[in-house]
Amino acid sequence: MSAVLDHHDAHDHDHHHAPTGWRRWVFATNHKDIGTLYLLFSFTMLMVGGVLALGIRAELFQPGLQLVNPELFNQLTTMHGLIMVFGAIMPAFVGFANWMIPLQIGASDMAFARMNNFSFWLMIPAALMLVASFFMPGGAPAAGWTLYAPLTLQMGPSMDAGIFAMHILGASSIMGSINIIVTILNMRAPGMTLMKMPMFCWTWLITAYLLIAVMPVLAGAITMTLTDRHFGTSFFNPAGGGDPVMYQHIFWFFGHPEVYIMILPAFGIVSQVVPAFARKKLFGYASMVYATGSIAILSFVVWAHHMFTTGMPVTGQLFFMYSTMLIAVPTGVKIFNWIATMWKGSMTFETPMMWAVGFIFVFTMGGFTGLILSVAPIDIQMQDTYYVVAHFHYVLVAGSLFAMFSGIYYWLPKWTGVMYSETRGKIHFWWSMISFNITFFPMHFLGLAGMPRRYADYPMQFADFNMIASIGAFGFGFAQVYFFLAVIVPAMRGKGEKAVQKPWEGAEGLEWEVPSPAPHHTFENPPKLDATATKVIG
């Protein structure tokens, strides 16, 4: 028997070389390969969602109907939102989690490698269904990305495809979250306590709990929509005693924690990058952890600030107004901590740091406009205007996306083994930063002047700012194409200066203890950590 076991062990070790060709990707169980798949998938969806956004901005370039009719315009706005949120931002952060969490905690892989593969491949049919909805009878859903009843009850068959796609994406998110939680709680290297974990792991741990809490709520809301459409129920149909406003409560009980799901991992990335280039420890690590936890808890009690105009009682308005103002406090703590980390640091401004500082600047602007919208009397004026569009793009595009770029430039040498071109990185940064602000800053003025969102046409007085915004949008879109062709493609082909194990002088953490590029199998024997949990002993 022992001879058989010995033979079996040797047999296993023979198979430790990486699979090659298409099998490496289709049957991927390695966290790095799956992380790469997620990142490439999300970039593809970013391009698809971006094309829809450019369709919207091309139509709004001047007053009158240019390219699309109002129905198709609403399909574009709806699908742009759904594809960007569920197809671009969330999968990108899961890609970061897959790549970096095992490297940062000294684990050999994610806890459930095959489930990891399954949760990625579920996204492909869902994405295809979302994109294919444009070619179904009646076109894509045109109810807005929030899918409010009663519009959703009147849509064509593409609405059902959309609901099915959302269910599949939700299942993928829940599986990914379980995987992340189990990996972080059970597979940390000896010596790495929770309070010594990198901030990125903390933000993802909290995000994963949020996802498990709220994805079933979305599933409930869209299932009720489905049964209203086909099975004779009247959850949201007033003719049968239902209440369309109830849909909004259920949706935003998912939707508000969801916006923090899309920003907390961004906070984690920025909390890794800023200390590395300030060459200082992160200021107030424990307060950062507690602030992240507070944001997660408070995110469950602010949902109805999206609903100030639904006729809720004044007491309700006051509760949601004050709780929304309160959530600005832990967010402010984070911004203070990043600035305090930079204070008197010996800072250098390589591309990752530029994106991180750019993130702090634009995210803070988006945060302030959010604080303004939290004031119920102001929000009632601003509701459904371009001021809201400006606010959430400052938080989501400038928030999530800019932090992701920071993380990509920061970890790209570790992923690919080559250094990107610093000049190209800086061109991408300035091009994106300037065109982003040209696109979305004028929308504040449009909203203050009363221009409603989701309208395909508008009066003449809004023409100038719309033209500026449309020009900026095309500039921003082309900046991301430049990023892919000038930065990502050369790195994937291994073109460029060879990266050393630790390309950034101030970087700390276990991911910099492995060679660049990170080998297919890392940490087969868990590393032993010193007291600070940043260096490997021996």
UniProtKB/TrEMBL annotation:
Catalytic reaction(s) noted: 4 Fe(II)-[cytochrome c] + O2 + 8 H(+)(in) = 4 Fe(III)-[cytochrome c] + 2 H2O + 4 H(+)(out)
Molecular function terms from GO: cytochrome-c oxidase activity; heme binding; metal ion binding; oxidoreductase activity
Segments traversing the membrane: 37-58, 78-99, 120-143, 163-187, 199-226, 246-270, 282-306, 318-340, 352-372, 392-412, 428-447, 467-489
Family: Belongs to the heme-copper respiratory oxidase family.
Protein name, UniProt field: Cytochrome c oxidase subunit 1
Membrane topology designation: Multi-pass membrane protein
PANTHER family: CYTOCHROME C OXIDASE SUBUNIT 1
UniProt domain Cytochrome oxidase subunit I profile: residue ranges: 16-530
Function: Cytochrome c oxidase is the component of the respiratory chain that catalyzes the reduction of oxygen to water. Subunits 1-3 form the functional core of the enzyme complex. CO I is the catalytic subunit of the enzyme. Electrons originating in cytochrome c are transferred via the copper A center of subunit 2 and heme A of subunit 1 to the bimetallic center formed by heme A3 and copper B.
Keywords for the protein's UniProt record, in alphabetical order: Cell membrane, Copper, Electron transport, Heme, Iron, Membrane, Metal-binding, Oxidoreductase, Respiratory chain, Translocase, Transmembrane, Transmembrane helix, Transport
Organism of derivation: Hydrogenophaga crocea
Entry-linked NCBIfam families: CtaD_CoxA (TIGR02891)
Subcellular localization, as worded in the UniProt entry: Cell membrane; Membrane
Region of interest: Disordered: 517-538
Biological process, per Gene Ontology: electron transport coupled proton transport; oxidative phosphorylation; respiratory electron transport chain
Keyword Cytoplasm applies: no
CDD domains: Cyt_c_Oxidase_I (cd01663)
Recorded GO CC terms: plasma membrane; respiratory chain complex IV
Pathway recorded for this protein: Energy metabolism; oxidative phosphorylation
Annotated SUPFAM superfamilies: Cytochrome c oxidase subunit I-like
This enzyme's EC code(s): 7.1.1.9
